[in-house]
Amino acid sequence: MHGRRREKVKEPTADEREQSKQRVDKYCALNTHVMDLKSTSVFTRESLDSTKKLLELNTELHSVWNYRRTILTHLDSWQNPDERQGVLEQELEFLLEIIMKNIKSYWMWNHRVWALSSLPCPNWQRELKLVAKLLAVDARNYHGWDYRRFVVSKLRESVEDKDAVDRAEFAFTTEQINRDCANHSAWHNRSKLLPAVLGKSSEEEQKRVLDEEMGLILNAIYTDPDDQNAWLYHEWLLDIQKSDRERSELLRGKIEAIRELLELEEDSKRPLVELVDSFVALENLEHGSITDDEKSECLQILGKLKTIDSYHAGRYRDMVRLLNEQWGASEPLL
Amino acid sequence: MTNNPSNTEDHGGLLVEKHIEYIKSLDKKQDELEYWMTEHLRVSGIYWGLVALQLLGRANDAFDKDAVVEYVLSCHNADGGFGGHKGHDSHLLYTMSAVQTLVMYDSLDKVDARRVIQYVKARQDPATGEVSGDEWGEKDTRFAFISLAILSFFGAEDELNIDGVVAYVQRSMNYDGGFGSGPGGESHAAQVFTCLAALAIARRLDVVDRERLSKWLAERQLKSGGLNGRPQKMEDVCYSWWVLSSLQILGRVHWIDRERLCGFILSAQDPDAGGIADRPGNIADVYHTCFGIAGLSLAGFGGCELAEVDPVYCMPVKVIERAGLRSWTEHLPRGWGL
Lengths: 334, 338
Description:
The complex is a heterodimer. By secondary structure, chain A is mainly α. Chain A has helices at 14-39, 45-57, 62-74, 81-98, 106-118, 124-137, 142-158, 162-179, 184-199, 203-223, 228-239, 244-264, 269-285, 292-308, 313-327. Chain A has 15 helices and no strands. In chain A, 28% of the residues are buried. Chain B has helices at residues 16-25, 33-37, 42-55, 59-62, 65-74, 92-104, 113-121, 141-153, 162-171, 189-201, 210-218, 239-250, 258-267, 286-298, 317-322; strands spanning 276-277, 284-285, 309-310, 315-316. In chain B, helix 6 packs parallel to helix 8. Helix content of chain B is 45%, strand content 2%. A two-stranded antiparallel sheet of chain B has the order 1-2. Chain B is mainly alpha-helical. Chains A and B meet through helix 1, helix 3, helix 5, helix 7 and helix 9 of A and helix 2, helix 11 and strand 2 of B.
């Protein structure tokens, strides 16, 4: 349903029509056959094989995936752990073959989770390697990231040194971000791991970790000032600080970085918005902490932004109204 | 309504007649493999088509109400849920489309409410509050929304552990204010919509970080005017719904350029076969036709008369009013407004 180009409609030749009809007939016959077997609860190797043929043609038939699982659990081999291991390993092989037909298929990923969860001896390390390979090809595939989290949680359950697992995951996100600071999926995962990392660190280590975070953020900001993500991550870092004093410090640091960016390019949209947001945040933390000049500057910037970023003019108008209310500015409404 | 079949260009660029013809043609494509390959979601296809038709004010033009209702009811399984087609396994996704379709046709009384309610209730994990899509257990915040929405049509929301659902949604909130498919899941506009809609029905929008999420959603608009689902992804007409309905619930639709969005949606129409595609030049489908038209309605498209659409249920406001389910608009956190 996504991403298929329209082409000029040509009248199909008699041959093409015949081929098309054969494809339709073949698919419908197989589909009817499998659904008939399913409705009469036939759980044999033959019916299993029929489901395979059908799923190879259409990976999205969730009822057939359900049926396949039911067949597997009814076969004699299911009762014997060694045989079940073999059967499910084959299932994983099968999935690996067809997942490339639709790497974003909920049903196939579900089936993989089911297979791993049913294995007497699951190999979580191998799954971790597999999903790392996938994410190397498609770093933003959230099915892959969700699956990775599932695998890591299972790995964690199965080992003594859970901290090592957490540290390795955190390091994985560092590696991903250093490779591409615009990899939002990596930043997101990092945000889930950071609180635990901080929680387990001494005061000294916490400072070092936060410095490293700031380094990553600043790098992302300088690489692409327009990317909203690093700025949002910075905002969130403020949330998890322990005191307003620490928050103010971070905000002042952010303002410095923005001033540098604006020296390079004075009409850079994102830094301008972030500058206003930063002043507003400072003033909200402590009334009277920003000057009248800085307040005027904010209103001027918002006026400018309505032009250089007209798509978001509605937001800037709201911000002007809010600041006039909050700061009782003597500037006329822009 | 001023729809005059001879004036195909009269609706500010929205090819109304073409889209009606397109939706009519959907059930006549038995010679195409695609028709058969999508049989498993036929019920959802009907829902998408019916929403488009009702928003266009042409509900009776392409579908035969009695035939559709009979077909939908034939998808009702013994376990109380609905499958995507006759004989297909139940799932919340298709139960939702089935119930929505029946509600739009004012025919919900034709279904045994208790059976549906039991099926939906059974999807919630009593230990975690999380909701699965079917008996096989896949959990996703989409199902948090769907379970609440279906039960609300029967006035039975309280049969779910609402606090548990809200806590599940809260755990799925991220640093950027957005929501993912579950705890740990990356923010994605479709999940944002389902989480906001779930919270709206549960009257718990107070847990949302309105400022941060509004900012994040506003950034989904690209130069083309189209919206994407998360950073650095391509624009897609279906996000005209997921993003815009989210902004509507937050009271921030004006934070994006609605005219440019309408322009983008219109440019994704197929001028020959009708229907709307995911982006300009691509093949149309009924899913994008539905969400494109719903997006135009939410964006206040002035080119022609479109019925108002409810941003929580993605159904006409008139239908939601008739069902007594518009009260979510009166339980917004202070200052949000619509």
